[in-house]
Amino acid sequence: MAVIVTPKTTPQELLDEIRAKMGTTEIDTWTLDSDGDFTHSTPQWNKKAWLRPMVKDTNLVFRILPPRTSTISSTVYAIYHGRFIEMLLRHFDESFTEAKASSLPSNGDIIRGSAA
């Protein structure tokens, strides 16, 4: 199911707010790549997966994507979802009412890469 966030404003406004703070000293454990996807920037978890944002109805949804040639483990799945929600709570708690993630991947999540 990825990460689903219910913003207080519009999903696009929350996404714009998150993107504006990425790359600043305020948020130093996540980066935004040239495709607009988020990846963890600490050495241990860097580029083990990406979270791709999309506006869906009244929610902001972040779907998980793997590196091209590997599969996302349950540990990486848990770390990315949990730490992304942690970052949202720390920096954007006034901007949303709920953030949640399922225990298993579902429609739209991609956990296996394809050989390049």
Total helical elements: 2
The largest β sheet comes out as: 4 strands, antiparallel
The unreliable regions are none
The count of strands amounts to 6
**Order of strands in the sheet with most strands:** 4-5-1-6
* Rg value: 13 Å
> Based on CA inertia axes, which overall geometry fits?
globular
- End-to-end Cα distance: 26 Å
Helix fraction, binned, reads 25-40%
Instruction: Please tell me the overall pLDDT.
Output: 90
Instruction: Tell me what portion of residues adopts beta-strand conformation.
Output: 25-35%
Q: Pairing-aware structural class of the strands and helices?
A: alpha+beta
* Total count of domains: 1
The run of helices and strands is EHEEEEHE
Description of the molecule:
This protein is an alpha+beta fold. The chain has one domain. The chain has 2 helices and 6 strands, in the order βαββββαβ. It has a 4-stranded antiparallel sheet with strand order 4-5-1-6, covered by helices on one side. The longest helix is centred in the last third of the chain and has 19 residues. The chain is globular.
